[in-house]
Amino acid sequence: MQNILANALALLPHGPEFRFVDRLLSLDPGKSGVGEYQVRGDEPFLQGHFPGQPIFPGVLLVEATAQLAGVVAQSDPQIAPLLGLKLAALRSMKISGSANPGEIIRLEARLTGRMANLVQVSTSAFVNGQPVLRGELTLSGESPLAASR
Question: pLDDT tens across 64-104, in order?
């Protein structure tokens, strides 16, 4: 199972400097997943957010859940991965907290719909068992079939 989780995480196109999913805890390919990101404290963006009292930016909480959502969507064994999958829309996104250096952010993503090149996902993030983000997002990519024409 660990090998499957590691291979799924390799689906992220982001470089290590902009990857906000350290590990997958569970994956139901094409349906749902749970992952984690540990705020190390040495991330460059924390220097200015906020000096002396660093917190993980809310917009990066959204990005972290979008990255997990992409892993879930791209791991579906019945559907070819979409090319250039990107965050396309946010809906009902509520940020109610954040994380400090040393804390672990638990990320959850559940696909709620799929139509052509769009993937709808319900996401949430938790720190110390408390919700810090809930909402829906849409990912968009290009079908491999459309790209080959």
Answer: 999 999 999 999 999 999 999 999 999 999 999 999 999 99
Q: CB neighbours of 82 closer than 8 A, spacing ≥ 6?
A: 73, 74, 117, 119, 139, 140, 141, 142, 143, 144
Surface-to-core class of residue 115, CB atoms within 10 Å of its CB (0-12 exposed, 13-18 middle, 19+ buried): exposed
Residue that the structure tokens 């040393």 belong to: 102
CA distance 95 to 47: 21
Ramachandran assignment for 116, one of left (phi > 0), alpha (psi -120 to 50 degrees), beta (any other):
left
- Catalytic site residue 49? yes
Number of neighbouring beta carbons within 10 Å of residue 138:
18
Residue in 49, 106, 110, 134 annotated catalytic = 49
The one-letter code for the residue type at 140 is S
The rounded percent of the chain whose pLDDT value lies above 90 is 81
Q: How far, CA to CA in Å, does 22 sit from each of 39, 40, 53?
A: 10, 11, 23
